[in-house]
Write a structure and sequence with these properties.
5-stranded mixed beta barrel; 4 helices; Sugar fermentation stimulation protein homolog; SfsA_C; alpha+beta; SfsA; SfsA_N
Amino acid sequence: MKYDNVEQGIFIRRPNRFIAYVEIDGKEEICHVKNTGRCRELLIPGTVVFVCRSNNLKRKTQYDLIAVMKGNRLINMDSQAPNQAVEEWIEKEGFFGDHVKVRRETVYGSSRFDFYIETGERKIFMEVKGVTLEEDGVVRFPDAPTQRGVKHIHELCQCIKDGYEAYIMFVVQMEQVNYFEPNDRTHPEFGQALREAENAGVKILAYDCIVRKDLINLSKPVRVLLDKKKQEQVC
């Protein structure tokens, strides 16, 4: 996935979830934040960020904030990017084989899943979660409690019971991380639901990404650790 018209700036402040003030070419600009998560460890005053300038003159904000430097690590924080990157990956890399039909935003039960995939006789639902929270090479999700996320996991378990395949894909929006784990400190219910889903047959995947200021592409599998004892051994 590529971006056009990318510029560098300096983060100033974020008065609410949707907008941020960024210094661009010496001028303070209002930018749309394409991630409604907390991102407190990313959006620190003085941090280098990257913004995408829109060609739509009718927009209230001319820029979208899409990436941020965390030390020497570039992190994409566009919450819309993971779905686009996964769709491109499914179509190009052949993870589900050839002749794949992919449909976005498909309703099943009381949830709307990111992807419905058909290939041969296989019928698959997939939910995608973007991951931006990193600490010492360990990446976690979520960065804030998400009852919606728990609901999606329970619905995917129902898909398995009804004869479908089900996947949760955690898109790590950065490179060179050690492993992924659920953020039990922030939302233990999500972690428990994820473990129950794995036991029910839901496939749990995590992939890191090649991230540049103007692109994000899925890259390599990341180890997923759901067992708390194994997590403690790794630490």
